[in-house]
Amino acid sequence: xxxxAIGLAGLGVAIVAVVALTTPWRVLPxxxxxxxxxxxxxxxxxxxxxxxxxxxxxxxxxxxxxGVSLVIAAVLVATPLGARLxxxxxxxxxxxxxxxxxxxxxxxxAIRWPxxxxxxxxxxxxxxSTQTWGTWTADRLKNFALQLLLSAVMVVxxxxxxxxxxxxxxxxxxxxxxxxxxxxxxxxxxxxxPVFNDFTPLPQGQLRASLxxxxxxxxxxxxxxxxxxxxxxxxxxxxxxxxxxxxRRIVVYDTLLEVPEPEIELIVAHELGHAKTDDVLHGTxxxxxxxxxxxxxxxxxxxxxxxxxGVPSLGDPKAATLLVGLVSxxxxxxxxxxxxxxxxxxxxxxxxxxxxxxxPATFVAMQRNLAVRNISDLSPTPLEYVLYSSHPTAxxxxxxARSWGLxxxxxxx
Length: 413
Fold this sequence. Notes:
mainly alpha; 4 strands; four-stranded mixed β-sheet; about 70% helix; 15 helices
């Protein structure tokens, strides 16, 4: 236990160090005056009211879904219910562990299913969803299957290692978790993303030529820009960068092709900022260290809680539900910290887009367009901001662009 605790502390220090060194805690140049975000300045009363109404309509199912996740995780890590149910099963240890994991996920899916339908209905009412109930169900089941597969593999491997090396299984588990996270991040664009979307190269034309020329000017190697068929699910606008090395790609939603080309160029310039500073690679490194940290934490915390939950040892199949609960709880509790770091990284990508295009006026117009089209929350409550905001709000991004423009002596829209 002592060695695992030392490993846990060491990995924690490594995570903090990497995050501290790779996170841009200040995105504007030193000396730049910060403009105060003000939704009223850039959005009309009707737009603000619509955003507030949408936020109110989606808050209830979102908070209830979060509450369900917390309650299920708490039951699994604080009571012997899961262990008792698995104890009634017969068969090989690995089969009992798999049934235990599947049972937890199925219960969670069943409870959260009507909440998901509630949320989807709101999206349809506001014109954001273009899905049928059939395609919505298919997407939800695909996501469920992927999560179940990863969780089941994790639990069975951990129990197998604990059976083989009861006192030191955290060492191979940490190494395996680190390696698997790196591999999944590399493979995600070519293995997982195609399960949910079809991708085609951006057609030949002025826009494609402009985007590739901008990437070349920025010194970011981009062989292609892909278009995702997002319109079969949503009317929202988005773009993203995923993968690294040979699998790095910039993807734009097909819905984004409807907006003016200068705004598309700015959005892609933002994504080039992520690629130029290797944000995906850095995020993967933090995620891999976090996975190794999690493996050590499972050993330490799992052994502290196993008696309370009726688990003889972490090498027993009865430990399956305890392990699922601990991972779920860790995922939920780490969300606010991940969002904090993400907001700063997104701010740096915004600043990069402004530096590359030198067009704060179009940036402001683009952020207004995105916020209105996506019905973004313009003034989230502190709790919503901490729990759900992985990006700065639209008023914050617009204010940053004005600050950048003032600092560089450009017209401030």
